Amino acid sequence: MNCLRAEYPATFAVVLRNLPNPPHELSDVNDYLSFMEVTVYGPLRAATGGKQVHLEFDGGTVREAIDALVERYPRAKPHLFGDDGRPEASVRVSVDGESAELEDPCPADASIGVHPAMRGG
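The structure assignment produced for this chain is given below.
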């Protein structure tokens, strides 16, 4: 949450003021907003604009987290999915530092790492 406050202080203040029951403590903000930290590697950095991004995510599966990443950063799609819409076999994802499969659970407050499909010849 500190990253949101640091990157967008004016927006953060407006969000807090407009909550139905504004939190009394900054730590209470997590009850209202769920952001996942995503670290991307290789060509995904150009698609997201940086090594780390934060996504609004309510929890679900690793696949749903990847879908949220692609929804927010559409240029990431060709690095993660084939022409048939299926995830590339060489895409690797970790959740809180542990290797994860697409059907594995992914909590809203997880930190994930995404290694895009490897290309070569």
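Interim note for the steering committee: Residues 62-72 form the longest helix (11 residues). The beta strands are 35-40, 52-56, 60-61, 92-95, 98-100, 105-106, 111-115.
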